[in-house]
Automatic annotation (TrEMBL):
Lineage summary: Bacteria, Bacillati, Actinomycetota, Actinomycetes, Kitasatosporales
Record carries keyword Transferase: yes
E.C. number(s) listed in UniProt: 2.4.1.25
Pfam family, one: Glyco_hydro_77
Record region (Disordered): 628-647, 678-699
Catalytic activity reported: Transfers a segment of a (1->4)-alpha-D-glucan to a new position in an acceptor, which may be glucose or a (1->4)-alpha-D-glucan
This protein's name: 4-alpha-glucanotransferase
Length: 699
């Protein structure tokens, strides 16, 4: 299609679907979006704007539909308030409550997913009505905790990567012995089968279910009843896995998720054959009933992927639609495999619940903090199941900015705002509910995506994308509703370019932000007028020194992160300039530590920086576990798939020697860092103070 100017009809049509026709860059410049981009984005939402005439017809149809509609696709109200409606005079309205019963639209509504019914003359309509909390509560008292990527935390009992039993041990030890209030995890979402060229946990197959490769096989109750050849087969898998584990812990091998998953699946298929006792059978059936169609679809996709591969767009045509008769037939043919994958989801859920119990039993006031990735792989289970709610031939990303002058394409299909609203936001609610089920808090990656996302048309560079807006009142409302149901805290990852007003709205609704030392400067991270003094940091946030996508603190202090990027050809400026800026940045922070009399510190600069965090008013304080061990290697170096071992490194010491979970309590550097958060307060001390004050953290 040849390029064309975006005329008034195309622009109005784009606005009607939330598609931005211009945007402001991170430097304040205004960019007009190309007409071809608008046409492509609209097409992904089922709107033909390929010619000026087509755009005018689509606009006329949209106006007519808006005029004829008695109710919006979905209505959102704040709990305790009347329903905001504009209806013809004399219209009759009633609300069917989620828990049963009816009420009128003027009555205060309890939180929940209700249904609104309206009658005006001969016109009748029904629409989902979401009654959402005004806000969710922030933690009642200050807490600190470890931030970890679970695969990297191996014990000597692991099968080649950290698992849910290791997580339970980490939570139990840090809660009981150190007074930690939480453990924050990377995503545990299910991944695609087959080779993983970039095994990022932020590119999952499904955000709805956790991956069974996190299971500790020996902790499945039926394992103890294995006999004969089945016992020998599972013992063989365990021996091979332990050999792999020893190689990783000795530093001779990287974490190999594909090998771990293959061994666990082989073993778990044998464990699955052990008959369930009546109580266990009833528990499985209750789980299957609770998860319903979502679980059936996920298990069906897994079974089909074993036969046809993980790329569902290449499956036989009749299998590409989860609601097709051919899929129903295949589900019957593959009933055994579908049942196996349902069982895998169940035992994974059981062990997730066990890890959260261990955290709470250890005295943690929050416990596990799960992580919700921003999207899913385009050929994965969720993309197959929810394809009617996702924009085809589109990818989520970021526009060009100072972090990446070319922009970013994350390779994940975005939600369609119109389709999500038509579904009453149930798909979003389902995955949020799953993430919150065994958690005291949920971290939402790129939380700004509840307001708008950068869409990149397939085959085009990220610079040729545009923002698409969502109904933030609904998107955020669903998040708060599910957090309210779970009694959980919400943490928003709000780093990078954030639209004006977004952080303020999130804070007003009780969503904690994320503050990272590397970005906290007077005048903002771009101005870099000196480190932000601790008393000026945000109160309602999770404060930490670094993240999984940034250099460890030891590497940042030494300047090794610049050397690494130089070796990999990632520098955008001459190496001396990069090193000079990195040194100036570090020296500025060291000067701030001296100003606060935090240097010299017996534990060194890393310990002093963590002590700086305790001087801030931040509600939650996070310790990146590799920082506590002195690790100098980044878990992930964005944009380096194939040249850096992203997502495959075990937690290690300053020499690169892996540190097993069992050795953490006695590790001198771990002891020095964690002492920062426990000095002056006995382990296990509990306080009911609701205000958050700087200083050591309580459980």
């Amino acid at each position: 299609m040849s390029a064309r100017h975006a005329d008034a009809s195309l622009q109005e049509l784009a606005h009607a679907y939330g598609v931005s026709t211009e945007y402001v860059t991170d430097r304040g410049g205004r960019v007009t979006v190309a007409a071809d981009t608008l046409v492509a984005v609209l097409a992904s939402c089922g709107v033909d704007a390929s010619t000026p005439e087509a755009a005018r017809r689509a606009l006329a149809a949209r106006r007519a539909a808006d005029t004829d509609r008695l109710l919006p696709a979905c209505v959102v109200a704040r709990a305790g308030s009347a329903v905001p409606l504009r209806l013809p005079p004399g219209a009759e309205v009633r609300v069917a409550l989620e828990g049963g019963g009816e009420t009128g639209p003027a009555a205060p509504l309890p939180p929940g997913a209700h249904v609104l019914h309206a009658v005006a003359g001969r016109r009748r309509a029904s629409a989902p009505l979401l009654s959402v909390p005004e806000r969710v509560p922030v933690p009642e008292r200050r807490a600190w905790g470890f931030l970890v990527q679970l695969y990297s935390v191996l014990s000597r009992r692991s099968w080649g990567m950290g698992d849910l039993a290791d997580l339970a041990e980490l939570a139990s030890w840090s809660g009981r012995a150190l007074g930690a209030g939480f453990v924050q995890l990377g995503p545990l979402h299910a991944v695609e089968p087959g080779p993983l060229p970039d095994p990022s946990p932020y590119r999952p197959s499904s955000r709805r279910f956790a991956d069974p490769m996190h299971v500790r096989v020996e902790d499945v109750p039926e394992y103890r009843y294995l006999e004969g050849e089945a016992r020998r087969a599972v013992d063989s898998c365990a021996a091979r896995a332990r050999a792999l584990n020893e190689r990783v812990l000795s530093g001779a091998a990287l974490i190999d998720r594909e090998a771990v998953r293959a061994l666990k699946h082989e073993a778990l298929r044998r464990v699955y054959e052990v008959p369930l006792a009546p109580g266990r059978r009833a528990a499985l059936e209750a789980f299957v009933a609770r998860e319903g169609e979502d679980l059936t679809d996920f298990a069906t996709w897994c079974a089909l992927a074993e036969v046809h591969g993980g790329a569902w767009r290449s499956w036989p045509e009749g299998l590409r639609d989860p609601r097709s008769p051919r899929v129903a037939e295949a589900r019957r043919e593959l009933a055994g495999a579908v049942a196996f994958h349902r069982w895998l989801a169940w035992i994974t859920d059981e062990q997730l619940a066990g890890a959260q119990r261990a955290a709470k039993d250890a005295g943690m006031n929050i416990g596990l903090v799960h992580d919700l990735a921003v999207g899913v792989a385009p050929e994965g289970a969720d993309a197959w199941t929810l394809q009617h709610c996702l924009a085809g031939r589109m990818s989520v990303g970021a526009p060009p900015d100072d972090f990446n002058r070319l922009g970013q394409d994350w390779g994940q299909p975005p939600w369609r705002p119109d389709a999500l609203a038509a579904e009453g936001y149930r798909p979003l609610a389902g995955l949020l509910r799953a993430g919150l089920r065994h958690a005291g808090a949920l971290r939402v990656d790129h939380v700004m995506g509840l307001f708008r996302l950068w869409w990149v048309p397939e085959g085009r560079p990220p610079s040729e994308g545009t923002y698409v807006r969502y109904d933030a009142e609904a998107m955020l409302g669903v998040l708060l509703l599910e957090a309210h149901r779970a009694g959980a805290v919400v943490i928003g990852e709000d780093l990078g370019t954030v639209e004006r007003g977004v952080r303020e709205e999130l804070a007003a609704r009780g969503v904690l932000g994320t503050s990272v030392q590397r970005f906290e400067y007077l005048g903002g991270s771009e101005g870099r007028h000196g480190p932000l003094p601790p008393q000026q940091w945000r109160t309602n946030c999770l404060a930490t020194l670094t993240t999984h996508d940034l250099p460890t603190t030891a590497a940042w202090l030494s300047g090794e992160h610049v050397d690494l990027r130089a070796r990999l050809g990632l520098l955008t400026r001459p190496e001396p300039e990069e090193k000079a800026q990195a040194a100036a940045e570090r020296d500025g922070w060291l000067a701030e530590l001296r100003r606060l009399d935090l240097l010299p510190d017996a534990g060194g600069e890393v310990v002093a920086l963590h002590r700086f965090l305790t001087r801030t008013p931040s509600t939650l304080l996070g310790v990146w576990l590799p920082d506590a061990t002195g690790d100098r290697r980044p878990q992930n170096l964005p944009g380096t798939a194939g040249v850096h071992p992203n997502w495959r490194l075990p937690v290690a010491d300053r020499h690169g020697r892996p540190v097993p979970l069992e050795d953490l309590p006695g590790h001198p550097h771990v002891q020095a860092v964690t002492r920062v958060f426990t000095d002056g307060e006995p382990h296990g001390t509990r306080t009911e103070e609701r205000d958050v004050r700087p200083g050591p953290c309580s459980a």
